[in-house]
Amino acid sequence: MAGSVELVKLTKAYDGQTAVDGINLRIPDGSYCCLLGPSGCGKSTTLRMIAGHEGVTDGDILLNNRNVTDRSPRQRGTAMMFQNYALFPHLSCRDNVAYGLKIAGQSKAERHRAADEMLELVNMSQHADKLPTQLSGGQQQRIALARALICRPEVVLLDEPLSALDPFLRIQMRKELKQLQRDLGLTFIHVTHSQEEAFALADLAVVMNDGVIEQSGHPRRIFEAPASPFVAHFIGGHNVLTPNADTLAGEASRFSIRADRLGIAAAQTDLPESSARVEAIIVDVEFQAQFYFVEARLDDGQAVMCYLPEAQLDAAVVAPEQRVALYWDRAAVNRFEAPQ
Q1: Burial class of residue 294, CB neighbours in 10 A (0-12, 13-18, 19+)
Q2: What are the extents of the domains in the chain?
Q3: pLDDT tens-digit map of 223-241
Q4: What does the alpha-carbon distance between residue 93 and residue 90 come to, in Å, rounded to a whole number?
Q5: What is the average pLDDT value for the chain, to the nearest integer?
Q6: 146, 148, 199 from 153: Cα distances, Å
Q7: d(CA 59, CA 139)
Q8: Would you say residue 1 has pLDDT above 80?
Q9: How far apart are CA 288 and CA 203, in angstroms?
Q10: Per-residue pLDDT tens for 51-95?
Q11: SS (H, E, C) the chain
């Protein structure tokens, strides 16, 4: 059974310093939710409060409409998978997985039977009798995940579970995590600082900054319409621009435009009336296999980046020190929701 999670004005302060500042969030049951943001934004503190490993200064945590704010971790219906996996080095993989059932008082035969089912679920049956030190990082992660799942939690909490893995294995393991979450129908809440990881996994992404939620929603919606300059900068692929008398005068306030929505033409080129344009100097052109990454600088010093498909690159125009026209369809402009 999956669990819905609701945070109501959730706050955490340490010695007068606010780490999480009155956030409100509802995570539907069966969701894969990613909390993302830079170091110190409050995402891990929020996860630990949901788990019961961190006390709440103010506000409430509801699990399936039950207020669990003052309950112990074992009473909540959640299970935590820690960043360092926290496996017992002296126990076999089977006994590591079965540990929660041992604490709950189940017999050795019962808990080993359940552990073997979990090991099969994460494709680790053949390693049941090994010690954690005999496993690779990815294998240790599977054991830690099986241990988190064995007590049949309603909500699984994952604290940067992929950060210790090499890039290839990280991609493989995130696919396995998503597939497992779908197969089990559980609610997963996953903390990460990587927007790529969050966008690959989540059906609900929550971008945090300085203890508050800047934006939440489906990753595609966040990418297409970041709600603030911070979100646009953090998720990447966006230019945040400020109009002034000399450049971008048609816009009333700061806005963003995706790097893949920009075109580059010779400075004197006539463009359709539906296009906005601004002149710039090319700073650098870098080949990135599927596209060229072009850096440019407006006359007022603002930096602009552009992802240009190889077929659209005119090497005579797009070259360092060349003066060009940057242009985009006016309909592609993203105007921020909140006043900036």
Answers
A1: buried
A2: 5-233, 237-246+253-331
A3: 999 999 999 999 999 999 9
A4: 10
A5: 91
A6: 11, 8, 24
A7: 38
A8: no
A9: 28
A10: 999 999 999 999 999 999 999 988 898 998 877 778 899 999 999
A11: CCCCEEEEEEEEEECCEEEEEEEEEEECCCCEEEEECCCCCCHHHHHHHHHCCCCCCEEEEEECCEECCCCCHHHCCEEEECCCCCCCCCCCHHHHHHHHHHHCCCCHHHHHHHHHHHHHHCCCHHHCCCCHHHCCHHHHHHHHHHHHHCCCCCEEEEECCCCCCCHHHHHHHHHHHHHHHHHHCCEEEEEECCHHHHHHHCCEEEEEECCEEEEEECHHHHHHCCCCHHHHHHHCCEEEECCCCCCCCCCCCCEEEEHHHCEEEECCCCCCCCEEEEEEEEEEEEECCCEEEEEEEECCCCEEEEEEEHHHCCCCCCCCCCEEEEEEEHHHCEECCCCC
CA terminus-to-terminus distance, the chain? 42
Beta carbons of 24 and 192 less than 8 angstroms apart: no
Q: 89 Cβ partners below 8 Å, 6+ apart? A: 131, 132, 133
pLDDT reported for residue 97 = 94
Q: Any idea which of 56-65, 269-278, 290-299 has the lowest mean pLDDT?
A: 269-278
Q: CATH assignment of 237-246+253-331?
A: 2.40.50.140
> What mean pLDDT comes out for the span 240-268?
86
CATH class of 5-233: alpha beta
